[in-house]
Amino acid sequence: xxxAAVLTVSDRSFRGERPDEGGPLVAEILKNAGYEVVRTAIxxxxxxxxxxxxxxIADSGEVQLLVTTxxxxxxxxxxxxEATLAVCDRLTPGIPEAMRYASMQVTSRAMLSRAxxxxxxxxxxxxxxxxxxxxxxxxxxxxxxxxxxLEMLSGRPADCAKLTG
Length: 165
Hints:
Largest sheet: 6 strands, mixed
Distance between the termini: 18 Å
CATH superfamily: MoaB/Mog-like domain
CATH architecture: 3-Layer(aba) Sandwich
Number of domains: 1
Shape: globular
Number of strands: 6
Helix content: 40-55%
Low-confidence stretches: 160-165
CATH class: Alpha Beta
Structural class: alpha/beta
Order of helices and strands: EHHEHEHEHEEH
């Protein structure tokens, strides 16, 4: 079992003006997929604060997967992708490509997502949209392959020839 954290990026949820619906939904999906969600947090759309929280969670060594929700669009305050790029050691472009491809089957607006994914130390960081519906669709598109990636990231032998969903 892998441990995960969910970070919601939202000014309004951070200020308590709107309930966080995306974070709890993402956590539930991860739990149902066999992940132990050990941390959740909410930060405002401030790049420095997002970067700080990403570093804090990833560097703690307690999670192998860190999923963000929110801040991936075109709005001026949508800076989650920039924060993610700033803290990652290596990028994993196939993950956001797969999410956008899957979402394009639902809506052409999926091409507007600026979501990123990458690795910081032993933690895989993935950006999801802020919309609960879009977050669910994006996460479910890549979830079947994540355990294999996390196994490889851990340094344990992984059967790369085995076909998975």
